[in-house]
Amino acid sequence: MFLNETPVLSVRDLVVRFGEGCPACLNHQGSMEKNRCAHCGTVWAANKVSLDVYPGEVLGVVGESGSGKTTLMRSLYFDFPPTSGKALLRDYKDGQKNIWKASSAKQRMIRNNIMGMVYQNPVMGLRMNYSAASNIAEKIIAAGSRNAGQMTYRAKELLTAVEISTSRMGEAPRNFSGGMQQRVQISKALANNPALLLLDEVTTGLDLSVQARVLDLIRKIKALYGISILLVSHDLAVIRMLADRTIVMLDGSIIESGLTDQILEDPQHAYTQQLVHSLL
Amino acid sequence: MESPVEILRIVDLAKSFYLHNPGLKIESCNNINLSLLEGEFIGIVGRSGAGKSTILKCINRSYLPMQGSIFYESEAFGRINLTDASEREILYLRRHEIGYVSQFLNVMPRTTAKEHVMNALVDRGTEEQSAELQAQEMLQYFCLPEKLWNIYPATFSGGERLRLNLAHAMVKEPRLLMLDEPTASLDNKTKLLVRDILQKLKGKRTSMIGIFHDIEFMEGVCDKVFNISEGALVT
Questions:
Q1: CA A222 to CA B180: how far, in whole Å?
Q2: Among A59, A234, B68, B143, which has the highest number of CB atoms less than 10 A from its own CB?
Q3: Which member of B62, B76, B88 has the closest CB to residue A262?
Q4: Which residues of B touch A54 (CB under 8 A)?
Q5: Is the ipTM of this complex over 0.85?
């Protein structure tokens, strides 16, 4: 039943440190300027972050710029190795092995088959000079398929799902608007039916009508495919619309977590209260 | 005859808010005790700011209670204390057993009235076709004109919004329905319609707890009235 399900993703004590650290900050004794050690300048981008994402659930992550939201996402997608911590995926070795300790080949397999990532900046997620269809095909090939007909079929299916005309599937995303690029990125991330979708500020910088279209698309993806989503946004309206539960990050740590409406209506932490009261 | 099940029992509930800036504690409600039987309808009255909505929001866990217990007789989990139930349990109950209706409408962008009602079912795994049929039935039941079904609800009037909210909550057939000032800012004619609808729901044995400014309007519909200022049930 619903409640006995194993989390699709469990993260425990993720630490991402940029810098060597000094005895003071390594022992959590030195003075810190936000998440930067005042003594040695080491930045603790993520500090003991733990979370669970359950099947079919949207977990929202909010926090100000520099709070560690993207660091969390990018370490999960193996863009850089974490300093320490453990991440378990239900679909990788039955959630028994830490994915950050897996070999490079296994990590590539996880990136291609189990997870999909949509970056805030489409340049990071797309090959701008390759056609939209090739971008999707690249992901499918990476997962091991070689059937061109199937790839074209899948590209058409996915682009239609994100409301991009198939007549434009041969065009390179550099010719597309920001909203369209974002939607191509989403279709690319969905290419191999991932169990977990990582969405990093997908609606930031998009105009309202396109934003509505992307939000609608995410809701449909969740309802139709039952995909679990880790949704990073600093837009509380987006979080309110989509997230079942929400965690709040500040200076690399989770300071509060709860049901989304509880976080927004009855925030407990001083920073969360400030964040919610800043809402337009 | 079997005595009706007690579906909800609130014991010594207290809620206050601490605002870090400017460092202020605001007491909202204190020492709340009430009991709701299956199929019963309790109306809550009290002056503005007395903490009426707070009680409902604590039951819904949109607010974290500071003290006390809220026992709910769940179909899935048996008797459960909503104040310390897990987030996953609360999400399950909201999807399957507990409905919350306010005068405000919270709809996803680009979602029509019918889709909004359907989504309540699709989100818990119902097939789209069956969800559509049930949604239509519910919209009809709550007398929302058919010409509005495929329209985005942003342009709806207060009464239409309320009926849509009711349809969204009731399509899940909740065992417990909370109504947060459903008749606020409605004209008399629409209020009468809402009263009829609530009467109908009572007929379906839905247990309800509602906040009303104009309780005299609900005379004959509410079984009991809880006056929060006096902290006690009056009938």
A1: 29
A2: A59
A3: B62
A4: 88
A5: yes
